[in-house]
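Notes on consecutive records. When two proteins share a document, each keeps its own sequence and its own token line. Never mix them. Below: protein one.
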Amino acid sequence: MKRLLLTSTALVLTAGMAFAQTATGPGVNPSNATANSNNSATANQDGTIFNESLALDSAGGGNDEEASGTAGTAGNGARARVNLSNAVTAQGQTTGGVSATVQQQTANANLQFQVGNLNQSVNLQSGVRQESATVQEGNENDAIISQTQAGNEAAIAQRGNLNVNAIIQNGVDNGAASAQVGLSNVSTILQDGNHNIAAHSQFGENNAAMTFQNNGDNTAAQVQVGNDNKSLISQGGGDGANLPAIDGTPASVMIPAGLSVTGALPGAASLNSAASIQLGNSNLSAIIQQGSGNEAVNYQKTP
């Protein structure tokens, strides 16, 4: 690899004054971000399927770690999805007519489809029942997927140039999907544990989305539309973490420059949920969760 609401929050109450979920309020509609512990994390720009990220845990067994990221527009878009059904356990698509779909397998399965020039894609799988799909349409895009142990699914869809995408999963039944449309975007999803779900959608230039999840049953969703946005969701990784690929390729996440915390320590985290939406340019965000059952959402928009 050569390149590798806080402002408006509505808390929905149930009997006993427990929070059913944490979500942005109507003041930011049609944008919406929700975080629901042990259930889902969602982020959506405008109520359409584009610029939407979904991390859904139906808790029903089987293909329940569903992740979907859709970026761009109807005329210039990309979608990555995992665990829709046994027939679609990993899929990457673009509006340019490029598509790759992997069905559920008893061993491991991977499909990589490149259209353009000087794209690079690496797939690494060690274990059983792991599926992955990578679609690259454009020039000089880089992608790596690494999966160990069992039952992990990952999908990457890139449309544009010079985008970089990494999904590293170590554990059982993790799901991750990342879609990029534009130029020089960076997406990193690192999952170390079981039943973690993450989704990223990026549309623009020079955006960076980073998610780290460990232990189990965490969900994270991020949407970035614009340029030069930076976002970190860390559930169990403190303000920075790393998880190398099977072949030793390094992959790391860290809090964006200009933000700092005290007392952020890596450790076991479970049942946490976080969602982030960044619209416009040069927004910075970090959601760091330690412990269990935490919910957080972020909404940012610049003119």
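Protein two starts on the next line and is unrelated to protein one.
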Amino acid sequence: MRALIREKYRPYHDREILQAEAEIASGILETIDARGPLSSLEFEDRQRVGADHSWYGQTRVKRIMRSLWASGLLVTHHRKNGRHYYERPERVIPAQHYQGTPLLDVEEYLRWIISRRQQAMGLLPRSAEAAIWCSCGTGAENKVALSQLMEAGVLTLLRVGEKAVPYYILTSTLDLLDAPLPAPRMLFLGPLDSMLWDRKTLRYIFDFDYVWEVYKPENLRRWGYYVLPVFYGDRFVARVDSRLEKGIWTIARWWWEPDVTPNAGMLDAVRDAAERFMRYLHAVGVAVGEGVDQAVLQAILEVAAL
């Protein structure tokens, strides 16, 4: 499937980036050939070419490496602290796959990527936001792919809620609808978690509105720079604004949803979630702002004291 994606996007990268920077691109490949997996930090060229928050970063080398990746000339060998380390594909991909015949069947690709998108979201509405259908073909093409997946029994159409809104679900997961709910636990969801992809679904099923405000000017933010939704049991119960600063998990604000009154079980879940999150962050301590709810503050400080 990557072969088809390369065929689709490589002309742009060849035309706009790799041909214009052919000498640097060749040098990057030669260096990786000689030294093995490298990130953009291992190259001395630090010239900045991109705008803030561009998809490829702000340096020329990083932009070229991303284009080499999109064109199939490099693959991600591993990541460290979110940074990609690139290697030649033939030294990463098993030979039986790397040397296999590229699959360029467009219809099969569309069925595959829509199935993967469906797997990520659980419930996928036909009316989902446009970004969710990115790389899934035109509206007419993904409509055909959805029909084919339905006919093959891969997808099932459900009607959800009082308005009977149509959603697709993987047929293999239908039994989850009748499964008992697991014991409730609290989760801090990242802004790009697939559960948050479709805002209309969040509002319709959970009565929860969420916008990632990291790209908004500060004076236009309602909540904060990097606010995480807090999920507990079967609903969203809070939002937390925090960041990691020099190894310290710094919590600036915590907002309970208007109709939530935290009980002892929920506060125990706060402690458990905070402990897991600190391990995930490799935080060595925690700092809690004065505006944080006192019960939450106490629960988190108890974790920090362990």
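For the record: The first strand starts at residue 75 and ends at 80.
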